[in-house]
């Protein structure tokens, strides 16, 4: 058990129809004019946006609309949001959407109080202040609703980097599982891939730590596997969507990493290059990278893989668990090879160089030289 | 999965020697004069009190000492603390000790800002404000370090009741497992009993909810059982004390009850009467009550007991798990019958009447009439 600090101040309001309290929550929090950040079609199409505008106006809260956030949110769009937030003098950010919308909302909340460009906070500087962030989640996957992280893609430089700060934990996150009924099948599958990915990075790479955290991770993985099996068949199964939603939140809210040390996120490091370069869904990139990384990493670190095989799939041996995980991905129709996502094997060296740059920033550049990343990617061909 | 709100703002600082940051934390939090609440002998004997006074003076924080908190803290003493806190105009409470010291610290923090008597907050009123509460934990068991609950005994009326409020979550709790090395064997054992008790109340009595929460509970129980086996033999085994300490905190910080509904705390209801009337350790009362309650409750609610037997002990059937739990208590030398704690069977009706009063307050008076509680207690003879 290693030393740690744990502080997660986000208040989660979870349940059917809970988005209706957003106006009252904002008013109670002292907000009077919010930047309402959202994505493209679905928030409008489902009527959610209009309902949210209604809840705000009922509570005399002005809303400045800022739509058009894309999956794998991009810097240029976030910068425009910062400009609007500053010009309009909003006093809070309300993000309505999935992890991409939340992450861009966090970027804007930081930028609105900063005098310098937000990309600096994705490349080393730690923001000390941000506007209060409120969220209504419509896609469970990234955990952004209950953590202090935002991931942004600089589309000019093809860099996808995270910003981390205690200033960007959402004040309130509203989680209504019903809002995830309309997530299309492919994104529902990627969400399941993503939630599992968040917990297994630490599980496999840590230096040690309490068995309790292994068990929490295994509990979350089992919940994701059991519930995704149900909601892929019945998209509007409330209990399955709900248990999944909470499991995905807990997968990356800091809990599973308390007391562990030395962990890293090599699969995210490599995947961020895939989604930055080819703009594929983050979950789709992960289901390609993870089995390859596992085959490579388990050669030198077999121990935890034996536990994983046994606890998650009830099978024995290092390779059997990896195979079973790959089968689970295939069952979700998630890609498991570069070719499945039309990524040419000829690009491997270029991808590896891009990922290595991320690795250097994350302090794992020595552990993952370009040659090692290329070797991992070649296991995904 | 039922609707819930989750908000736990306590910052936990966990690790070796971490109590040394208390002065800096208080200063950063704006405190200049604290009421330093502690128990009786051990905090002084181990030198911890002097060290803490040093950390405070290094940071120019004045300390008003208030010792003498007893196990099962009593109202008269807490009232004296409130008086001192008001007279001395302290701006924060620093509790150094176990759950009893923390609970009394919370009572004083509320009383210091209230114009009325604190017992009112244990009998219905919800406090809206309290002084900031800081804690250095020396005994892991009650979970008070990361929740908004305080339990107090009114020694005149023999009532032991809880106060719950979002205002009494500690601002910072420092958890250094080394400080628990000197906990005597009997209290180390009761701590293990208590931590398990906190999670199994909800596990068995809830109406339903996600399997994820069952798995979290089972993870915590396994951690407690595995680590207590080690630290009962080796009191200064850091990893065992540490994993236990964090498991005990997570056992009652709200996490295991998210998304579940209809749960109640019948074992705590009955035990509070035992410790209020006979002043036995809370954990000792629980190891007497729980097997008896399980025998009674499992007759009408066998389902979860079958799961419990299988998951925790790898045995089959309802009764086998209860027997195995009782054996675990015996192995810890915890009492499992009223007679083991010199509580006369002739008192059963009187105890049952006292516990029923608590049950009425907790909204489970109908489910637990005096006759049912007496029947449960008779199973502990």
- What Rg of chain A do the Cα atoms give? 20 Å
Reading off the top of the CATH hierarchy, the class of the largest domain in chain A is best stated as Mainly Alpha
Alpha carbon gap, first and last residue of chain A: 38 Å
Total of domains of chain A:
2
The structural class of chain A is: alpha/beta
Task: For the structure shown, list the relevant keywords.
homodimer, 381 residues, alpha/beta, Rossmann fold, Dehydroquinate synthase-like, alpha domain, 9 strands, 12% strand, globular
Question: What does the model show?
Answer:
Two copies of one chain form a homodimer. Chain A has 381 residues and is of the alpha/beta class. Chain A folds into two domains: 11-179, Rossmann fold; 183-378, Dehydroquinate synthase-like, alpha domain (Up-down Bundle). Chain A is built from 14 helices and nine strands. The first copy, chain A, has helices at residues 22-28, 41-45, 48-58, 75-88, 99-111, 185-205, 211-233, 238-250, 266-278, 282-300, 303-313, 318-331, 348-361, 370-378, and strands at residues 4-6, 11-14, 33-38, 62-66, 92-97, 133-137, 149-154, 159-164, 172-175. Strand 1 (4-6) of chain A pairs antiparallel with strand 2 (11-14) of chain B, so a sheet runs across the interface.
């Amino acid at each position: 058990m290693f030393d740690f600090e744990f502080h997660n101040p986000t208040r989660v309001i979870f349940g059917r129809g809970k988005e209706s309290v957003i106006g009252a929550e904002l008013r109670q929090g002292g907000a009077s004019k919010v930047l309402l950040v959202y994505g493209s079609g679905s928030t409008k199409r489902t009527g959610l946006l209009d309902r949210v505008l209604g809840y705000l106006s009922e509570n005399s809260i002005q809303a400045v609309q800022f739509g058009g956030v894309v999956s794998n949110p991009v810097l240029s769009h976030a910068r425009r949001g910062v400009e609007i937030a500053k010009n309009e003098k909003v006093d809070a950010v309300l993000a309505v959407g999935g992890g991409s919308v939340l992450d861009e909302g966090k970027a804007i909340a930081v930028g609105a109080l900063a005098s310098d460009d937000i990309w600096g906070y994705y490349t080393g500087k730690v923001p000390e202040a941000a506007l209060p962030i409120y969220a209504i989640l419509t896609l469970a996957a990234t955990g952004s609703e209950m953590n202090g992280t935002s991931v942004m893609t600089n589309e000019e430089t093809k860099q996808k980097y995270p910003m981390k700060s205690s200033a960007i934990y959402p004040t309130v996150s509203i989680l209504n599982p019903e809002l995830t009924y309309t997530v299309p099948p492919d994104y529902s599958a990627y969400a399941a891939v993503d939630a599992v990915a968040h917990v297994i990075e630490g599980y496999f790479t840590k230096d040690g730590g309490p068995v309790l955290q292994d068990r929490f991770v295994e509990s979350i993985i089992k919940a994701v596997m059991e519930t995704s099996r149900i909601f892929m068949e019945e998209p509007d199964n409330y209990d399955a969507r709900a248990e999944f939603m909470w499991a995905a939140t807990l997968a990356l809210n800091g809990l599973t990493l308390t007391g562990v040390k030395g962990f890293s996120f090599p699969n995210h490091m490599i995947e961020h290059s895939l989604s930055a370069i080819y703009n594929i869904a983050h979950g789709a990139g992960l289901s390609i990278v993870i089995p390859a990384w596992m085959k490579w990493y388990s050669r030198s670190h077999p121990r935890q893989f034996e536990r994983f095989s046994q606890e998650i799939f009830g099978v024995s041996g290092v390779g059997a668990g990896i195979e079973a995980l790959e089968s689970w991905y295939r069952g979700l129709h998630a890609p498991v090879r570069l070719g499945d996502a039309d990524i040419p094997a000829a690009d491997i060296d270029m991808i590896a160089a891009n990922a290595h740059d991320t690795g250097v920033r994350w302090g794992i550049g020595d552990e993952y030289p370009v040659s090692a990343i290329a070797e991992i990617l070649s296991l995904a061909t």
